[in-house]
């Protein structure tokens, strides 16, 4: 299973935006995050739709916070990103016929669901 780093990337971007005076361009954020401006724009689009950030086009434009950082929850970000998996672990065979593996999958599934619930509470 591939790691989904969007949540940590968004946290990184929001912290830079909060400490910056005025809007930050996709290029500036990409430099901070060591990624491509296109990736920044794609990632930030969900946050804009959720009312977390806003974007301004043209000279002097860029991305800025729409809400106070202290009022943005991890749940808000998670939902704005399309609810990606928080844990980069999974079942070896999700539809296993082995009873032992089924028991392991069920136990791990319950643990991960509870951990995600607590993290996003």
Topology summary:
Layout: H1 6-19, H2 26-33, H3 37-49, E1 53-56, E2 62-65, H4 74-80, H5 99-120
Antiparallel strand pairs: 1-2
Essential attributes:
single chain; 121 residues; Arc Repressor Mutant, subunit A; 2 domains; two-stranded antiparallel sheet; 5 helices; 53% helix
Low-confidence stretches: none
CATH class of the largest domain: Mainly Alpha
The helix/strand order is: HHHEEHH
**Number of domain modules:** 2
- Mean pLDDT, all residues: 85
Beta-strand content: 5-15%
CATH architecture identity of the largest domain: Orthogonal Bundle
The share of residues in helices is 40-55%
Largest beta-sheet characterization = 2 strands, antiparallel
The number of helical runs is 5
Task: Give the CA-based shape.
Answer: elongated
CATH fold call of the largest domain: Arc Repressor Mutant, subunit A
Detailed description of the structure:
It contains five helices and two strands; from the N terminus they run αααββαα. The protein folds into two domains: 1-84, Winged helix-like DNA-binding domain superfamily/Winged helix DNA-binding domain (Arc Repressor Mutant, subunit A, Orthogonal Bundle); 87-121. The chain has a two-stranded antiparallel ribbon. The chain is mostly helical and 121 residues long. Helix 2 (26-33) packs across helix 3 (37-49). It has helices spanning 6-19, 26-33, 37-49, 74-80, 99-120; strands spanning 53-56, 62-65. The two termini are 25 Å apart. Helix content is 53%, strand content 7%.
């Amino acid at each position: 299973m591939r790691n989904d780093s969007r949540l940590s990337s968004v946290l990184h971007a929001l912290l830079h935006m909060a400490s910056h005076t005025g809007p930050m361009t996709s290029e500036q954020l990409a430099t901070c995050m060591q990624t491509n401006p296109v990736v920044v724009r794609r990632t930030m689009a969900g946050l804009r739709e959720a009312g977390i950030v806003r974007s301004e086009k043209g000279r002097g434009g860029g991305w800025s916070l729409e809400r106070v950082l202290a009022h943005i929850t991890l749940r808000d970000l998670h939902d704005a990103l399309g609810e990606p998996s928080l844990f980069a672990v999974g079942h070896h065979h999700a539809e296993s016929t082995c009873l032992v593996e089924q028991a392991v999958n069920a136990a791990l599934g319950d643990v991960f669901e509870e951990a995600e619930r607590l993290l996003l509470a």
